[in-house]
Amino acid sequence: MAARRSLLLIGIAGGLLAGCVVAPPPAPPPRVVYQPPAVVVARPPQPAMIVETVPPPPPEHPYWVWRRGGWHWNGYRWVWIHGRYVERLY
Q: Is residue 21 part of a domain?
């Protein structure tokens, strides 16, 4: 009788355990990253060069050279940088 009871308990336990399934953990939800829209500044084309009259060099620096002016983009608009005399680099 004890043997039958043991076999019965083993059968019941085996039946209960047969239905157990080890499932993988659920996949994590997709990661959503907010990216603000890109701001693209459309830079207008550079304006035409401005013709500057070259003045004579300063009397205290007769060997300096003229560096002509040019356009510079300051992040918002084109700005003209005037020409000037600079020390000659050897």
A: no
Does residue 42 fall inside a structural domain? no
What span, in angstroms and rounded, lies between the C-alpha atoms of 26 and 74?
A: 53
pTM of the model: 0.50
Look at residue 35 and tell me if it is in a domain.
no
> What residue numbers bound the domain in which 79 lies?
48-90
Tell me which residue has tokens 């620096």: 61
For residues 46 and 67, the answer to whether their CB atoms sit within 8 Å is no
**Mean pLDDT by 10-residue block, N- to C-terminus, for the chain (90 residues)?**
72 67 84 84 89 92 92 93 90
Total count of domains within the chain: 1
DSSP sequence for 9-23: HHHHHHHHHHT---P
Neighbours of 78 (CB within 10 A): 14
In terms of residues, how long is the chain? 90
Triad 34, 36, 42: Cα angle to 5° = 155
